[in-house]
Amino acid sequence: MSAASLGGGINLISRNAFERSRPEFRFKTYVNLNSHEAALRKSPGGGRGDDQKSVYKWQPDFDFSYVAPLGKRLGISVNGIKNDQFNLARRLTRTFNSTNGGASPDRPYLQQYSTNVFPVYEHRYSAGLRVDWKLAPVDSLTFSYTGSYLHQDYEQHSTTFNAGNNPASFGRDFTHGAAAGGSVSTSLATQYADTRNNTGRLSYRHMGADWEVTAMVGLNRSKFWYRQLAYSQLQAMAGQLTNVRVDFDGFEQYRPGIITVRNAAGQVIDPAPLSNFRFNNGGITTRDNEGNSKDARLDLRRSFGFRSMTGAIKAGVSSREELKTRDFNSFTAAYVGPDGRANSGDEGYADLQQRGIDLTNVAFVRYGVSREAFPAVQFPSASKGYALFRAHPDYFSVDRATDARNEAINEDQITERIDAAYLLGDLSLLHNRLRVVTGVRFERTTDNGRTVLQDNIAQYQKDANGKVLLQAGRPVLVYPTPRSVDQQIAHDALIYTRLGLHQRKSYEDFYPSLNASYNVQENLVARFGLARTLGRPNFGNILGPTSITQVAFEDPSATGARLGTITTKNPDLKPWTGIAGDVRLEYYTKNGGEVSVGYFRKQIKNFFANSIFLATPEFLEALGLSQDFVDFEVRAPYNINGIVHITGTEFNVSQSLAFMPGLARYFRVFANATLVHNQGPQEADFRGFTPLNINGGFNFNRRPFSLYVKGTLVGQKRTGPANATQLGANSWGYQATRLRCDVSLDYQLSKRYGLFVSGRNIFNDRDQVYAYGPTTPGYAKFSSEGEYGVLFQFGLRGQF
Fold first, then answer.
1. Which of 474, 472, 475, 516 is closest to 494 using CA atoms?
2. Which terminus, N or C, of the chain has the lesser number of Cβ atoms within 10 Å?
């Protein structure tokens, strides 16, 4: 198992095809439906580039597997999947302000109310092949291949009402904006993304009386990409209605109450028609993410027995190398209006309508907004916007400088290699009542990456000694403003060096472990585990853009932010290491049930956090930067001092009720719970840790019916710091307690065939986030909510 595993690992060896006595074919054909689109008719969205096209939100899907022994020494397995799933997320977000217009952290006002409608249509395809060849009675060779493809078709439709920074008046349930101080916006962001993955493995297995040998080599190629222009889309389109007054009257926890919008003359206007908005758009992006890996492994096992003791010695080596690359480019064509001049007053959607060009997305008004908080405004259409661009390119201004800058700053690549070796002893003592597995694993990790170098000092002229030239105490630019497009491109080329920052790091260590189980009685087992583990920093924390800005040019005593700043990732970030211990007691009932309780504790060093510190020579060397930046203020992730403690208790119950009379004997009930407590230095980042997780439910199995019901409760957890401007200092966001219920029902038609239906989150429980600080009043704590509908699947399954 990897040293990154906190609880251990199990190496599952699947059954070879030639070990079966006869061919076997299993299949499932089904339909996926979302409760937002349960009707079996065409509806808008998911048109692969045409947001006005109506398509079915269900398709006939299937998965199958076929295993065929071709003799006693050869067998093949084939499988395939086609899965189409439409989902619709509807979100609402409230934003409060505690710093402007007379507000305070204990008396904030509702500044902004936003909704988001997010339809997604996913199409998944997968195929696999496995060939098993028995070389000798105890030797076999296996080749496997899996290929998959995913297409995601999604669009985000957003509406925002903003009362502004200085409201005329406000209270617990109302905000009246200042005249001409508010705004309304409507926007559409599209993405049509594709993911391809191919994995091949060749493995050898020897299963002798005393020796077991397994060896494997593998290769993986994956790619994620999107091309908006290939789908005839203007990727980001928006409408802005500014210089208006926005009032919220009688707002509640979820609904904004009555929203009133007035123009500069104080007249009430309807914010729904797109014709009231100014047209603007963002760049069209392309993205290529690749992830390629290769790995190899060799494992040896030697069994032995001596009197009442049996066991084995295990040893192995492995190596894995993974390359990840990211390349992001843009084509920025900003709408400037029919006259070809920006900000000339003809940039409104109404101006286009007068020319017979209507960009309104008539398809998506029907989806509404979450909780029907207000009538949905009209959205622009990305396909209609692209058609406008193709027909009238003179209505747009292409920004070559922005595109050149994006090409330089949005590419990075990293290679991570993990080499490992282990030695393990597996002993059974006291007539197999006591089993002890102990050993040590060595791992070496090497990271080698490149990303953009952003040197803001390079834009200034320097003398022969490399010192920045000053004029009236200010640095002199190489390309003074105003600049032509070509000069701006040259100016940015001085600052941004594509893949100019080379970051390397390597670390290695030993990770011992001890696991033991003891049969206290025939049906009572005690378990104990102790291991040293690690958690590697993700690539996003060790590789990314570095920005350098010098502030003081003539003050030799300046340090920190007065001297300059460096905003970066931290290639010198160490993995956290921990000592993980757990004890567990398991009781097995005579009727096939289990009751268990466990306790675990982890002590972690070098936990991750974000901080501000002064640049040291060692830190600059790790970044590949000049020692000229010593004592600059650095903002980057780092390893905290001190110990972080994570403790938890686990409970598990599973029991068949076959011993009970009547219908009860057809039930099996189960429940488990995990309670976690974290403790550590104040700067430790515990966001995402779940303090409470409970699962429970039952199986009912009486032919021809089978019913499965499962409920999951996830306790409240921190999601991250909240905006201090909105709610004051020391404010945090919290994901509210979440409850989900999943149900599946099967009906056996015959020995070979059966019908099934399942539902996920059948009560459509919503994800809610609360954000508050020490003095936030109750009316301002609710922040956002998302609801996604119920996901149904029904169909026919069989085997023969």
1. 475
2. C
